Amino acid sequence: MSDTSSADILSRRKFLGAASLAGAGVALGAKPAMAEGAKPDPLITEVQDWNRYLGDGVQKTPYGVPSKFEKNVIRRDVSWLTASPESSVNFTPLHELDGIITPSGLCFERHHSGVAEINPADHRLMINGLVDKPLVFTMDDIKRMPRVNKIHFLECAANSGMEWRGAQLNGCQFTHGMVHNVMYTGVTLKTVLDEAGLKPNAKWLMLEGADAAAMNRSLPVEKALNDCLLAFGMNGEALRPEQGYPLRAVIPGWEGNLWVKWIRRIEAGDQPWQTREETSKYTDLLADGRSRKH
Length: 294
Fold this sequence. Notes:
single chain; alpha+beta; Sulfite Oxidase, Chain A, domain 2; globular
């Protein structure tokens, strides 16, 4: 039998009871001693305008827009970076965003000839070259094919380039903002190529855009058949014009320059095309004088 006295037990019970009451006081909102002299906050004690009046009706903004208090969360460009805004870039405000999905309206832009405005009813995708059956698809044709939804990040080859020769601008947005991560909706590139049928000697594809720059790049067939997409949707809605509406290529894990926007033609061949953007641009010279494509 314990030799602890009854007086000790009663003393412990009183202490525990007092501690419980103190905890209850905090839980019930008892004021800390340091807050005794604080003035009432009028944002709590007084009725605010948004409590007094009716707000806008449901159709005030048929396509929703951010709050006016978020007006500084926008893409930004650097006016002196390029000679023309039509062949330039703006930057995703990474420092203002949370989560892994970039809102469609904040995804950085990179254009070589400005944004192409294309009526989807007039857009065509041609498959030609080393194929069994050259084909032309409408957007309706493509949307009738089995579709997929995939989350991929896109990064410009020049991302972080503002620091290549030392920091030039202060901020994450301008230094690392040529990147975004979204959910794409579309069809696999393999599905479209299977419709045309690639010939055995078809080893490369040339992807060509419908913009004024006729942006084009060579792509290995092996990569095309693996995980590439032709996307018409982004984050649950249609692509934005600046992101390639109505159709763009998605080349996961490869530099953004290959993700041809407003894609209009895919030609199959037995060797790369050595286009402008993979010879004089977007390449590094090796020690022996050969070029290494990004």
